[in-house]
Design goal:
Number of domains: 1
Order of helices and strands: HHHHH
Number of helices: 5
Mean pLDDT: 91
Number of strands: 0
Low-confidence stretches: none
Largest sheet: none
Helix content: over 70%
C-alpha cells in the first residue's frame, strides 16, 4: 500500500499538471461548483509543484537547496505583501497574505516548472 501511495505521489510530483486536472475533475464532480473546484485544484497541485520544481532545480544545478530557495522566495513575497498592506491599509490581514502568497506561488512555480522542464531537456541532451 505504501509503495502504491509513493508511486502515485511520484507520478503527481513528476507531472503536477496531471494532478491539477484530476483534482479539478474530482472536485467538480463532488461540489458542482467551478470556482470551488478550481480553488481546490490550485491548492493541492501547489504542493506537487513545490516538490517538482525543487527536484528539477536540484537536478539541473547539482545543488540540494532548491526547496529552501522556494521557501525563501515565498517568504519574501509574503513580507512584501505584508509591507504593501501596511502601507496601503494601515492593517495586516494575515489570511489574505497567506492566500495571496499561495496563489502567487502557484503561478510562479507553474511558470518555473515549464522553464525548468525545457532547460532540463536541453541540459540532458547537452551532456550526451
Amino acid at each position: 500500500m505504501i509503495q502504491f501511495i509513493a508511486g502515485l505521489y511520484g507520478v503527481f510530483a513528476t507531472i503536477p499538471f496531471i494532478s491539477f486536472f484530476i483534482v479539478l475533475l474530482i472536485a467538480f464532480i463532488i461540489t458542482k461548483d467551478k470556482k470551488e473546484s478550481l480553488k481546490w485544484s490550485v491548492h493541492i497541485s501547489m504542493l506537487f509543484l513545490l516538490s517538482a520544481v525543487a527536484a528539477m532545480f536540484d537536478k539541473i544545478t547539482g545543488s540540494f537547496a532548491g526547496f529552501w530557495w522556494i521557501i525563501l522566495l515565498l517568504l519574501f513575497f509574503g513580507g512584501l505583501l505584508i509591507w504593501l498592506q501596511w502601507k496601503v491599509r494601515q492593517r495586516i490581514l494575515l489570511t489574505r497574505v497567506i492566500r495571496s502568497v499561495w496563489l502567487l506561488g502557484f503561478l510562479v512555480l507553474s511558470f518555473t516548472y515549464v522553464i525548468l522542464f525545457f532547460v532540463g531537456i536541453i541540459h540532458y541532451y547537452g551532456q550526451t
